[in-house]
Amino acid sequence: MKQSIIFRTLNIVFGAAILISMSNCAGCEGRKKATDTPVADSSITGMVWIPAGEFEMGTNDPNSMPNERPAHRVKVEGFWMDDHSVTNGEFRKFVEATGYMTTAEKPIDWDELKKQLPAGTPKPADDMLMPGAMVFTPPLYPVDLRDMSAWWSWIKGASWKHPQGPDSDINGKDHYPVTQVSWDDAVAYAAWAGKRLPTEAEWEYASRGGSEGTRYYWGNEFKKFGNYMANTFTGNFPYDNTVEDGFERTAPVKSFPPNGYGLYDMAGNVWNWTADFYTEENHTEMAVGCYVPDGTPRSIMTNDGEVRRVTKGGSFLCNASYCESYRPTARRGTPYDTGMEHIGFRCVKSRSK
Fold first, then answer.
1. Residues near 144 by beta carbon (within 8 Å), at least 6 away in sequence
2. To the nearest 10°, the Cα dihedral for 60, 62, 68, 70?
3. Rg, C-alpha atoms of the chain
4. Which residue did the predictor score with more confidence, 18 or 289?
5. N or C: which end of the chain has fewer CB within 10 A?
């Protein structure tokens, strides 16, 4: 049963938005960088070479989420990675070339959906089965941070072209990251571009930019020399955004300094889809043996049977009082068929053999 669809339907029926909410390598040496950078060609324009190496994935820091622990050594082969999240302009080229329709733009099939709901669930009005997606709707006052429905709403007509609903648009925002794309949408774009989504390990390794052991990829302090290093939620989450970092919602790509590999927005702005399935216990399960990602997702399902994929990097909604997920080790599981205003993606490409 796809629980994410059930929750989405309950949002529609009852008018409430509810969001559902790699190894301790024996004999691994310290992290090593490859010195043989492949020759660039037109197919990797806008991408950065990430050298092969070993790193400590996850953390043992008690000031972290349980799903980030324990730390373990992982070996990663070299690969190319987009230096920024896929933008509205880039995604538009894909849609215009293929006629692709995103998940958020497709109406809900009631005949299919009712098979996954409790018997007797009444069919909502036809106009409530229209396409839509999840939009950040900030409250005006403090709310219970355990209830994400307090700041998320299912909005009909929300899509990558209308990220905050039918009255919004992306005119003049070609250089902003595309959002309201499901995991399926990201995979479709990557295939069209001759690329793929990164594994969780590849994403975390690349996000550090060559650093290791620090809370953020730029160091242990949230600000560096008094400067904001990522687009996050400043102020009191989720009702009082002071916009001290210059952006209330998403920011144009490359608005903040890159990491040591030359990758932009590997912290904050928008979460990035990865290839891997998600469980809370991924790190614990991989804490023995030696894991080497090969570009294919780990085939693990959640205990409740819902299919979630790992998202990394945090977003413009992350705040220290809530999740602080702009840290390299932070991770979350997101229903694969859900479009949201704070989730985008970037692609990678394996080195040609």
1. 150
2. 30
3. 20
4. 289
5. C
